[in-house]
TrEMBL record:
PROSITE patterns: INTEGRASE, TRANSPOSASE_IS30. One of its GO terms (molecular function) is DNA binding. It comes from Actinokineospora auranticolor. Required for the transposition of the insertion element. GO terms for cellular component: cytosol. Belongs to the transposase IS30 family. Residues 17-187 form the Integrase catalytic domain. GO terms for biological process: DNA integration; DNA transposition. This is Integrase-like protein. InterPro entries: Integrase_cat-core, RNaseH-like_sf, RNaseH_sf, Transposase-Integrase, Transposase_IS30-like, Transposase_IS30_CS.
Length: 199
């Protein structure tokens, strides 16, 4: 359920101006026969992580059960688990918030927040520009996953490799650094901030 406290209007201003790292945008790319890949993009570095959402056993062979599991692989539980296993590989300082559209795949956003510590916010209906970083990145990803592609055929390792290629592209918005370089700088500064100094 999308309540007022999780609307984008409640998202901290630091997320909007990209001044503080750790604010993410997410979405699904939908392919042939309801196949999907999830995308997570960090707003300040443009670093992209892809979510592997394979079809569940029984997809296409068993009749759909009302309120049953989403066998296409991108139901709320599958998306929650994929985000949790992906984003928790980062230090807590780099996972402050996640902004998503109002898709039913985020129905378990409250559990996701409890599992990861990431505050979840939702864009206004029909407002893709409120997640512009993610929309732009999804456009870049369509070079690898054209519309009409069966996205379920890609393995986790293949998705990781494609994200690595995308993250190694220099970006004008990053003064021609790559998203990987920008994220590595943040990770290094996070490690240094945690080290006590003596004077």
């Amino acid at each position: 359920m999308v309540t007022p406290e999780v609307m984008i209007s409640r998202r901290p201003a630091e997320a909007e101006d990209r001044a503080v790292p750790g604010h993410w945008e997410g979405d699904l790319i939908i392919g042939l026969d309801k196949s999907a890949i999830g995308t997570l993009v960090e707003r300040s570095t443009r670093y992209t992580m892809l979510l592997h959402l394979p079809r569940m056993e029984g997809y296409g062979t068993e009749p759909r059960v009302k309120n049953g599991p989403a066998l296409a692989g991108h139901g709320a539980a599958a998306v929650r688990d994929a985000i949790t296993s992906t984003i928790t590989t980062l230090p807590a300082r780099l996972r402050r918030s996640l902004t998503w559209d109002r898709g039913k795949e985020m129905a378990q956003h409250a559990t996701l927040r409890l599992d990861t510590g990431v505050e979840v916010y939702f864009a206004d209906p029909h407002s893709p520009w409120q997640r512009g970083t993610n929309e732009n990145t999804n456009g870049l990803l369509r070079q690898y996953f054209p519309k009409g592609t069966d996205l379920a055929r890609w393995s986790l390792n293949e998705l990781t490799a494609i994200a690595a290629v995308l993250n190694s592209r220099p970006r004008k918005t990053l003064n021609w650094k790559t998203p990987t370089e920008a994220l590595n700088q943040l990770l290094l500064s996070t490690q240094q901030d945690g080290v006590a100094t003596t004077g």
